[in-house]
Specification:
The protein is mainly α and about 140 residues long. The protein has one domain. About 85% of the residues lie in helices and about 0% in strands. Helix 1 runs antiparallel to helix 2, helix 2 packs antiparallel against helix 4 and helix 4 runs antiparallel to helix 5. Bound molecules: protoporphyrin IX containing FE (2 copies). One protoporphyrin IX containing FE (HEM) binds next to helix 2 and helix 5.
Amino acid sequence: MGVRFLKMAVIYILVGISIGIYMGTTLNFALTSVHAHANLFGWATMALCGFTYLLFPKASNSRLAKWHFWLHGLGLPLMLITLTLMVHGYAPNWIIMLKRIGEAVAGTGILIFAINVFSNVKASDFQNKRNDNVSMEKAGGEHFG
Ligand code: HEM
Ligand code: HEM
């Protein structure tokens, strides 16, 4: 799951930076919020979640991680697309409703991530991995992570 999150995160930094460059060139800052959330809720948050899953396989293998992936993965684009339409003046009620749904879905994804972290991320798992690396290095093996 960690790698899937990292790949999704990289797509968001490409989108986020493209919007930033577009705003910088046109001096039209209407999309600031879309740019900020693509970069922070997309790239930064997803990459942090991805690294968390890479470091803690128990959390990554949990069904909660799959739920997080789909809710974050569907809710965020819904938020960003509806917000883009709204800042360009297209804001019928159904778009506003879809934006709220996107926010609720993405927010639920993060709630599930939080539950997963509290249930399946243990300091002892990280410590064991560090100890394994040290033993491998002492035995002349390759350094891991
Ligand atoms: C080539 C890269 C980038 C360009 C050209 C760019 C450009 C911009 C521009 C033009 C604004 C609007 C400023 C304003 O409204 O006064 C902005 C805002 C913002 N950018 Fe970027 N940006 C880039 C990369 C990033 C990255 C990588 C992040 C985060 C990881 C980021 C986070 C933000 C945030 C949070 C805001 C909103 C700040 C606020 O509300 O005052 N940007 N950016
Ligand atoms: C479901 C989740 C979220 C919702 C509904 C939400 C909603 C909002 C709203 C309504 C604003 C004000 C926008 C404006 O003034 O135009 C805002 C601004 C901002 N949010 Fe969020 N946000 C969410 C998640 C996040 C996350 C996870 C981050 C960072 C990791 C973040 C960072 C920011 C920043 C930096 C701003 C100020 C930049 C801007 O003007 O857009 N938000 N957010």
